[in-house]
Write a structure and sequence with these properties.
This protein is mainly β. Helices cover 3% and strands 46% of the residues. It has one helix and 24 strands. The relative contact order is 0.13.
């Protein structure tokens, strides 16, 4: 019987998962390299869709001391209308979904409280998982990475399209184009990136919101105002995208979960994602 690969991957979300990497991985904080490893492992705790790096104790240039469990809550969401519950990617590192010991890194004037976790699993010994956000910089070989560890089983593809894409907010057309760029990302529906000339930029107001994506870079957001009603942060752009996303530079995308999108006059169903 044939296997749908994406279904197999989704069924594994409830498990503690790992994958070795051949990359040299470094984590820096306070002007010091606290982790430098050629034996790193990519780890997903149960219900996590975003991975972390784990490295052996011997590759950490700091003391590891027990940390008190943090008072942090899970934020379960669904991937798709009938998908399995997962943790919202914004759920803090301090939320752990497998047995293990939270740890603090300390040494030479740098202390990162609860920034490590030793899972109680023999397959991952002697590794400790590191909190991406607790460090100032991460390097894979000599290249910096942003937002979070890249998933080796995830990618983005960008393709030119000629379908008519029309975006409506409260029944008002805010974008209409026949020159979209479609961005396909593993486990997510397509995003439509539209030329500014085909967007009602007079209805968009830049906001202070920023987000970072490991594959695309840093996004700047817009709110849309229609008939006096403000819809915050429903559109975004990448003014300086990473190399994988250079083909959507300065184009405008809308949050399909909160607006109406018609493709060749067919209304798309609003997707169910962590951003719904």
């Amino acid at each position: 019987m044939a296997t749908q690969v994406s279904r197999d991957l989704m069924q594994g979300l409830a498990n503690l998962r790992y994958e070795p990497t051949a990359k040299r991985v470094r984590a820096l904080a306070g002007g010091r390299t606290l982790a430098d490893s050629r034996r790193a492992v990519i780890v997903w705790e149960p219900k996590r869709v975003v991975p972390s790096y784990a490295v052996p104790d011997a590759d950490i240039s700091a003391d590891l001391v027990p940390a008190a469990p943090a008072d942090a809550d899970e934020h379960p969401v669904r991937m798709g209308a009938d998908g399995p519950p997962v943790l919202d990617p914004r759920t803090p590192f301090a939320v752990h979904t497998c047995d293990g010991e939270p740890l603090t890194l300390t040494g030479d004037g740098v202390t990162l409280h609860g920034a490590a976790f030793r899972p109680a699993d023999p397959d991952l010994e002697p590794n400790v998982i590191l909190d991406f956000g607790a460090f100032d910089e991460w390097l894979e070989e000599d290249e910096p990475i942003v937002a979070h560890v890249r998933d080796p089983f995830k990618r983005i593809d960008i393709r030119r399209g000629s379908s008519r894409v029309r975006v409506e907010v409260d029944g008002v057309t805010v974008a209409d184009t026949t020159s979209p760029r479609l961005l396909f990302e593993t486990h997510l529906g397509p995003r439509f990136y539209l030329p500014c000339d085909d967007v009602r930029m007079d209805l968009l107001t830049p906001s202070s919101t920023r987000s970072a994506c490991a594959y695309k870079g840093e996004a700047s957001y817009f709110s849309v105002e229609v008939d006096g009603q403000v819809h915050p942060d429903v559109a975004w752009t990448y003014p300086a995208p990473l190399s994988d996303a250079r083909d959507v530079k300065d184009l405008i995308a809308f949050l399909d979960e909160r607006v109406d999108v018609r493709v060749d006059e067919v209304l798309r169903e609003r997707p169910v994602t962590p951003w719904s």
